[in-house]
Design goal:
Strand content: 5-15%
Order of helices and strands: EEEHEHEHHHHHHHEEHHH
Number of strands: 7
Distance between the termini: 71 Å
Largest sheet: 5 strands, mixed
Number of helices: 12
Oligomer: single chain
Strand order of the largest sheet: 3-2-1-4-5
């Protein structure tokens, strides 16, 4: 009697990805499988699967990290179903929460994938992912810019040199830079130190300007429609608009403001036990960079939009941090609305 296989066997692969090696755990729908190490090469994993699990429907998963999405894209090109998971979403049982090894991580990922409890994060297309690298480069330059300014001010303070009142602000004018270049010290070594700081400051300053200009230009050219819609919202400047395009991607993929605010980290955290219900403030899980950008943009929105300003004045006297977070969420709601409706925002119109 001839028999035919009516159910396609399934293979679940959990991968703990590192730069120099991958720890792999392969489990099928009827067996727990085994764990082994291999070189970090998607093609080698494909060859292994073809040799030992021919005819299986393949599912793969690994944690998001420094190795990016190149492996995920390779797996999908093989016809496999692949996902990249947030490490915080991977459920660990008992001792797994206190014992961490690459071997255990691969097993846990494979188990959660097999049991259907694993959800993948959003994977940007390659074009937007590489644009995001430019935005993050700018963010790193901003950190370096602030750091070198602090080092220069620290040297002046250490040497007992006071900054003239007309220069004592966050904006470093050309006159202030000239003043720093012409400072006299008792010994030339201090002058050499400041000269070194100033050379680095000028380099970072120019690099930051160049990267910012290229970032805005690229977004205007290739994402012009969304960029101009975002710029119509009070408080959303050119760099914040670029950040939204780079980091959040196409906002149309979010079903609601609740979904978006949870992703950015402007949703309230709640703790309930029996009849006791309390608000724990904004959630700790967030896209921290974009949350900070929206909070900073909210201060500008208060100055330029009468509706936002009226809301802020209404809550004067309360905790300023709480109020500005609420305004940031309103700003986020407006941002989603202009993208969804594709209608530019009008100042003064209540949304």
């Amino acid at each position: 009697m001839n028999t035919q296989q009516t159910v396609v066997p399934k293979l679940f692969i959990g991968i703990d990805i590192h730069k120099s090696s991958w720890k792999i755990h392969c489990a099928t729908d009827i067996s727990s499988g085994k764990t082994f190490s291999m070189n970090p090469n998607p093609m080698k994993l494909k060859s292994y699967v073809e040799q030992h699990f021919m005819g299986h429907e393949v599912f793969t998963a690994y944690e998001a990290g420094c190795c990016g999405y190149y492996a995920h894209r390779a797996f999908e090109s093989y016809g496999w179903q692949s996902l990249v998971a947030n490490p915080a979403d991977i459920h660990r049982k008992g001792k797994e929460r206190f014992t961490k090894t690459d071997h255990i991580d691969a097993q846990v990922i494979a188990r959660e994938l097999k049991d259907g409890r694993l959800q993948g994060i959003h994977i940007p297309d390659l074009k937007r992912e590489q644009l995001r690298s430019l935005f993050r480069r700018r963010n790193n330059l901003v950190k370096n810019y602030r750091k070198i300014k602090s080092l220069i001010k620290g040297q002046l303070l250490n040497q007992g040199i006071g900054v003239p009142s007309e220069f004592d602000n966050s904006h470093w004018s050309h006159n202030f830079r000239d003043w720093l270049d012409n400072l006299d010290f008792t010994y030339h070594t201090a002058r050499m130190t400041l000269d070194s700081h100033m050379r680095y400051f000028r380099f970072v300053d120019q690099e930051l300007r160049d990267v910012s200009t290229k970032l805005r230009s690229y977004c205007k050219e290739y994402y012009k429609k969304d960029y101009m819609l975002l710029r119509s919202v009070p408080g959303i400047g050119g760099i914040v608009a670029c950040g939204i395009i780079c980091e959040l991607g196409d906002l149309r993929r979010f079903n609601s403001i609740k979904h978006l605010s949870g992703y950015v980290g402007l949703a309230p955290g709640i703790h309930q036990s029996g009849d006791n219900l309390r608000n724990t403030g904004i959630t700790r899980r967030a896209h921290r960079l974009m949350r900070s950008y929206f909070i900073e943009a909210s201060w500008q929105a208060i100055r330029t939009d009468p509706v936002m300003q009226a809301y802020y004045r209404k809550h004067l006297g309360k905790n300023v941090k709480t109020v500005i977070v609420k305004i940031a969420r309103k700003l986020l709601s407006r941002t989603l609305a202009v993208i969804k409706t594709e209608i530019p925002y009008e100042i003064g119109v209540v949304s």
